[in-house]
């Protein structure tokens, strides 16, 4: 039998304190919980809000375009669309120019729900902006864009 490899506890501390992936994941979870809680009275999660907002365009986007914007694979996006479609907040229709493609549109109910959600999102975002200090949100967005 081979001798088990021991990783020094100091390495665990180093990773805990310096791992960018860990810190971004923790911050993302905290932000998601904050916005999930704020949007809960509307029956939305932060992910559903982002998905619906991504459909608020002058022309219905194709599934691939939305998946790219949200950094999701098409299968995951399709699964995320189903509950919103059941709630009649969006429609999925064939593209008249390419029957293989599907276009996504907000319904009147979807637009009305977004209209209720935007002030909640703005309020929560203002709190986060305050927590991050002057120019903190913009710096963070720019830094995250560099990584993405």
Automatic annotation (TrEMBL):
Keywords: DNA-binding. Residues 17-148 form the HTH marR-type domain. This is DNA-binding MarR family transcriptional regulator. It holds the Pfam family MarR. Gene3D superfamilies: Winged helix-like DNA-binding domain superfamily/Winged helix DNA-binding domain. The lineage of its organism: Bacteria, Pseudomonadati, Pseudomonadota, Alphaproteobacteria, Hyphomicrobiales. SUPFAM superfamilies: Winged helix' DNA-binding domain. One of its GO terms (molecular function) is DNA-binding transcription factor activity. InterPro entries: HTH_MarR-typ (IPR000835), MarR/SlyA-like (IPR039422), WH-like_DNA-bd_sf (IPR036388), WH_DNA-bd_sf (IPR036390). It comes from Chelatococcus asaccharovorans. GO terms for biological process: response to stress.
